[in-house]
Amino acid sequence: MRALTKALVGVTTAVGVAAGGLAHAGAAVAAPAPTQQASTEVAPLAVVNLGLSTAQAKDWQCQLRVLGYNTGTPDGLLGTSSWKAAQRFFNDLGLEAGKPDGVVGANTVMALQRFLNMNLKENLVVDGDPGARTKAAFAEYANLLSSVC
Predict the structure, then answer these.
(1) For the chain, percent helix, then strand, then coil, each to nearest 5?
(2) d(C-alpha 143, C-alpha 145), whole Å
(3) For 129, how many CA atoms within 13 A lie in the half-sphere containing its CB?
(4) pTM of the predicted model as reported, rounded to 2 decimal places
């Protein structure tokens, strides 16, 4: 995720510098269309790995798929499809993740915390805050999984 963020910042900076340079070159040159910028800014925000490495996230996606929940392509990037699958999984377990919308909000995090407490006996506070303890427990759980994709 850090590399993706750095790449995005680099591209955004390059576009900004080019647009600024073009603006000074004259009115005949147009700046990049806003729709192009919007598509590059949305992707990083849609991925929420909650501290998992790409390999750990892929193992989580594979586990969900084996259990019958469609995560989309197991790519190690927990995007909307992966989180919808996780929310359905949590709801089927009675962990109250809320509407499967793919958004990692407080209900989803609380369901994850309940799940981790059930499976790892972590005694996490179920508060919807994806803090360091929750992320560490999620990574610990993911380390127990073996990729079956």
Answers:
(1) 60, 0, 40
(2) 5
(3) 6
(4) 0.70
In single-letter form, the type of residue at position 129 comes to D
Q: How is residue 96 written in tokens?
A: 């109250």
Packing angle, helices 80-92 and 54-66, rounded to 10: 50
Q: Rounded CA gap, 76 and 56, in Å?
A: 7
Instruction: Concatenate the DSSP letters of all residues of 44-113 into one string.
Output: HHH---TT--HHHHHHHHHHHHHTT---SS--S---HHHHHHHHHHHHHTT----S--S---HHHHHHHH
pLDDT at 134 over 80: yes
How many Å separate Cα 146 from the centre of its chain?
20
Q: Are 99 and 105 in contact (CB under 8 A)?
A: no
pLDDT in tens, 40-68: 333 345 799 999 999 999 999 999 999 99
Q: Which two tokens stand for residue 25?
A: 């070159």
